[in-house]
Description:
Its EC number is 3.4.21.53. The protein is α+β, with helices and mostly antiparallel strands. The chain folds into 2 domains: 10-131, Archaeosine Trna-guanine Transglycosylase, Chain: A, domain 4 (Roll); 137-216, no CATH class. The protein is built from 6 helices and 6 strands; from the N terminus they run E-E-H-E-E-E-E-H-H-H-H-H.
Amino acid sequence: MSTHAGYRSTADCPAVIPVFPLPGALLLPRGQMPLNIFEPRYLAMVDDCLRTDRVIGMIQPDPEGGGGSPMNPKLYRVGCLGRLTQFAETGDGRYLISLTGIGRFRVESELATASAYRRCQVSYDDFAVDFEARAGEEQVDREGVLKALRDFVDSNDLKVDWAGIEEAPNEALVNALCMMSPFGVREKQAMLEAADLKTRAEILIAVTQMELVRGSGPEPTLQ
Protein backbone atom coordinates (compact mmCIF):
# COMPACT_ATOMS: atom_id res chain seq x y z
CA MET A 1 0.00 0.00 0.00
CA SER A 2 1.54 3.32 -1.03
CA THR A 3 1.45 6.56 0.93
CA HIS A 4 -0.40 8.37 -1.87
CA ALA A 5 -1.24 7.64 -5.51
CA GLY A 6 1.77 8.60 -7.60
CA TYR A 7 4.15 8.69 -4.62
CA ARG A 8 5.23 5.11 -4.03
CA SER A 9 8.87 5.71 -3.15
CA THR A 10 11.41 8.46 -2.50
CA ALA A 11 12.18 8.54 -6.22
CA ASP A 12 8.67 9.82 -6.99
CA CYS A 13 9.07 12.99 -4.92
CA PRO A 14 10.36 16.30 -6.30
CA ALA A 15 13.83 17.43 -5.26
CA VAL A 16 12.86 21.12 -5.19
CA ILE A 17 9.74 22.10 -3.25
CA PRO A 18 8.02 25.18 -1.84
CA VAL A 19 8.09 25.19 1.96
CA PHE A 20 5.59 26.58 4.43
CA PRO A 21 7.24 27.36 7.80
CA LEU A 22 4.68 27.14 10.58
CA PRO A 23 5.48 26.70 14.30
CA GLY A 24 3.69 23.82 15.95
CA ALA A 25 2.35 22.43 12.66
CA LEU A 26 3.16 18.73 12.44
CA LEU A 27 2.36 16.81 9.25
CA LEU A 28 3.11 13.10 9.12
CA PRO A 29 2.82 10.52 6.32
CA ARG A 30 -0.82 9.80 5.46
CA GLY A 31 -1.98 12.39 7.98
CA GLN A 32 -4.47 15.14 7.09
CA MET A 33 -3.65 18.78 7.86
CA PRO A 34 -6.22 21.57 7.33
CA LEU A 35 -4.75 25.03 6.74
CA ASN A 36 -6.23 28.52 6.59
CA ILE A 37 -4.11 30.49 4.07
CA PHE A 38 -4.30 34.28 4.16
CA GLU A 39 -0.79 35.77 3.80
CA PRO A 40 -0.20 37.02 0.23
CA ARG A 41 3.03 35.06 -0.22
CA TYR A 42 1.35 31.80 0.78
CA LEU A 43 -1.71 32.53 -1.34
CA ALA A 44 0.77 32.84 -4.22
CA MET A 45 2.40 29.57 -3.16
CA VAL A 46 -0.94 27.75 -3.28
CA ASP A 47 -1.71 29.28 -6.69
CA ASP A 48 1.61 28.01 -8.04
CA CYS A 49 1.13 24.66 -6.32
CA LEU A 50 -2.24 24.15 -8.05
CA ARG A 51 -0.62 24.86 -11.41
CA THR A 52 2.15 22.31 -10.91
CA ASP A 53 2.45 19.10 -8.86
CA ARG A 54 0.29 20.22 -5.89
CA VAL A 55 2.89 19.54 -3.22
CA ILE A 56 4.04 21.71 -0.32
CA GLY A 57 6.68 21.02 2.31
CA MET A 58 5.54 21.67 5.88
CA ILE A 59 8.42 22.62 8.15
CA GLN A 60 8.88 24.35 11.49
CA PRO A 61 11.02 27.42 12.15
CA ASP A 62 13.85 26.60 14.55
CA PRO A 63 13.53 29.06 17.47
CA GLU A 64 17.00 28.17 18.75
CA GLY A 65 18.75 27.91 15.41
CA GLY A 66 19.98 31.49 15.24
CA GLY A 67 20.22 33.56 12.10
CA GLY A 68 17.37 34.27 9.73
CA SER A 69 14.89 37.09 10.20
CA PRO A 70 11.34 37.48 11.51
CA MET A 71 10.00 37.12 7.96
CA ASN A 72 12.41 34.31 7.03
CA PRO A 73 13.44 32.47 10.21
CA LYS A 74 15.98 29.68 10.26
CA LEU A 75 14.33 26.32 9.61
CA TYR A 76 14.66 22.90 11.12
CA ARG A 77 16.34 20.47 8.74
CA VAL A 78 13.48 17.95 8.63
CA GLY A 79 9.93 18.52 7.40
CA CYS A 80 7.18 16.54 5.67
CA LEU A 81 5.96 16.77 2.09
CA GLY A 82 2.20 17.05 1.65
CA ARG A 83 -0.06 16.91 -1.37
CA LEU A 84 -2.88 19.43 -1.65
CA THR A 85 -5.98 17.22 -1.61
CA GLN A 86 -8.73 19.71 -0.72
CA PHE A 87 -9.17 23.32 -1.74
CA ALA A 88 -11.82 25.98 -1.13
CA GLU A 89 -11.79 29.74 -1.66
CA THR A 90 -13.57 32.04 0.78
CA GLY A 91 -15.36 35.29 0.02
CA ASP A 92 -12.70 37.34 1.80
CA GLY A 93 -9.75 36.09 -0.23
CA ARG A 94 -8.55 33.23 1.97
CA TYR A 95 -7.88 29.65 0.88
CA LEU A 96 -8.98 26.70 3.01
CA ILE A 97 -6.86 23.74 2.02
CA SER A 98 -5.98 20.29 3.30
CA LEU A 99 -2.67 18.52 2.84
CA THR A 100 -2.18 14.76 2.91
CA GLY A 101 1.23 13.74 4.20
CA ILE A 102 3.47 11.88 1.75
CA GLY A 103 6.89 11.50 3.35
CA ARG A 104 9.51 13.31 5.36
CA PHE A 105 12.41 15.18 3.80
CA ARG A 106 15.73 16.64 4.87
CA VAL A 107 16.64 20.13 3.68
CA GLU A 108 19.90 20.15 1.75
CA SER A 109 19.87 23.84 0.86
CA GLU A 110 17.54 26.80 0.51
CA LEU A 111 17.36 28.24 -2.99
CA ALA A 112 17.49 31.86 -4.04
CA THR A 113 14.15 32.62 -5.66
CA ALA A 114 12.22 35.52 -7.12
CA SER A 115 9.01 34.24 -5.55
CA ALA A 116 7.73 35.66 -2.26
CA TYR A 117 7.73 32.23 -0.62
CA ARG A 118 10.68 29.95 0.14
CA ARG A 119 11.91 26.96 -1.85
CA CYS A 120 14.34 24.26 -0.80
CA GLN A 121 16.39 21.48 -2.33
CA VAL A 122 15.52 18.39 -0.31
CA SER A 123 16.28 14.69 0.01
CA TYR A 124 13.97 11.88 1.10
CA ASP A 125 16.62 9.16 1.27
CA ASP A 126 16.66 8.95 5.08
CA PHE A 127 12.91 8.32 5.24
CA ALA A 128 12.17 5.48 2.84
CA VAL A 129 10.12 3.81 5.60
CA ASP A 130 7.49 6.55 5.19
CA PHE A 131 6.39 5.06 1.89
CA GLU A 132 5.39 1.76 3.49
CA ALA A 133 2.00 2.23 5.09
CA ARG A 134 1.61 0.90 8.65
CA ALA A 135 5.28 -0.09 8.90
CA GLY A 136 6.23 -1.15 12.44
CA GLU A 137 2.69 -1.08 13.82
CA GLU A 138 3.15 -4.34 15.69
CA GLN A 139 5.95 -2.83 17.81
CA VAL A 140 3.87 0.07 19.14
CA ASP A 141 2.88 0.03 22.81
CA ARG A 142 -0.77 0.67 22.04
CA GLU A 143 -1.89 0.27 25.65
CA GLY A 144 0.74 2.77 26.75
CA VAL A 145 -0.47 5.28 24.16
CA LEU A 146 -4.10 4.83 25.18
CA LYS A 147 -3.27 5.14 28.89
CA ALA A 148 -1.36 8.38 28.28
CA LEU A 149 -4.31 9.67 26.26
CA ARG A 150 -6.84 8.71 28.97
CA ASP A 151 -4.75 10.40 31.65
CA PHE A 152 -4.42 13.56 29.56
CA VAL A 153 -8.13 13.63 28.73
CA ASP A 154 -9.12 13.13 32.37
CA SER A 155 -6.66 15.77 33.58
CA ASN A 156 -7.94 18.36 31.12
CA ASP A 157 -11.64 17.41 31.26
CA LEU A 158 -11.80 16.72 27.52
CA LYS A 159 -14.18 14.66 25.44
CA VAL A 160 -12.96 12.32 22.73
CA ASP A 161 -14.45 9.77 20.34
CA TRP A 162 -13.30 6.65 22.13
CA ALA A 163 -15.08 4.35 19.68
CA GLY A 164 -13.14 5.84 16.78
CA ILE A 165 -9.89 5.71 18.73
CA GLU A 166 -10.36 2.04 19.61
CA GLU A 167 -10.95 1.20 15.93
CA ALA A 168 -7.97 3.16 14.58
CA PRO A 169 -4.90 1.19 13.42
CA ASN A 170 -1.72 1.93 15.34
CA GLU A 171 -0.16 4.15 12.67
CA ALA A 172 -3.25 6.30 12.27
CA LEU A 173 -3.72 6.49 16.05
CA VAL A 174 -0.15 7.51 16.89
CA ASN A 175 0.26 9.95 14.03
CA ALA A 176 -3.12 11.62 14.55
CA LEU A 177 -2.47 12.07 18.28
CA CYS A 178 0.99 13.53 17.58
CA MET A 179 -0.38 15.94 14.99
CA MET A 180 -3.26 17.09 17.21
CA SER A 181 -1.24 17.28 20.41
CA PRO A 182 -0.92 20.70 22.10
CA PHE A 183 2.82 20.40 22.72
CA GLY A 184 5.55 22.82 21.72
CA VAL A 185 7.80 23.18 18.70
CA ARG A 186 10.66 21.06 20.03
CA GLU A 187 8.35 18.25 21.11
CA LYS A 188 6.59 18.26 17.73
CA GLN A 189 9.96 18.18 15.97
CA ALA A 190 11.10 15.21 18.04
CA MET A 191 7.94 13.34 17.04
CA LEU A 192 8.53 14.21 13.39
CA GLU A 193 12.16 13.07 13.41
CA ALA A 194 11.49 9.79 15.26
CA ALA A 195 13.24 6.90 13.54
CA ASP A 196 10.12 4.72 13.45
CA LEU A 197 6.52 4.51 14.63
CA LYS A 198 7.50 2.74 17.87
CA THR A 199 9.88 5.56 18.80
CA ARG A 200 7.30 8.21 17.88
CA ALA A 201 4.77 6.53 20.18
CA GLU A 202 7.35 6.43 22.99
CA ILE A 203 8.05 10.16 22.57
CA LEU A 204 4.32 10.90 22.60
CA ILE A 205 3.88 8.94 25.83
CA ALA A 206 6.91 10.56 27.50
CA VAL A 207 5.93 14.10 26.52
CA THR A 208 2.35 13.54 27.68
CA GLN A 209 3.54 12.20 31.03
CA MET A 210 5.87 15.19 31.48
CA GLU A 211 3.02 17.56 30.72
CA LEU A 212 0.81 15.83 33.29
CA VAL A 213 3.55 16.15 35.91
CA ARG A 214 3.97 19.84 35.17
CA GLY A 215 0.23 20.34 35.43
CA SER A 216 -0.07 18.60 38.77
CA GLY A 217 2.53 20.55 40.70
CA PRO A 218 6.11 21.87 40.79
CA GLU A 219 8.41 20.35 38.20
CA PRO A 220 10.85 17.86 39.74
CA THR A 221 14.42 19.08 40.22
CA LEU A 222 17.05 17.10 38.36
CA GLN A 223 20.03 16.06 40.48
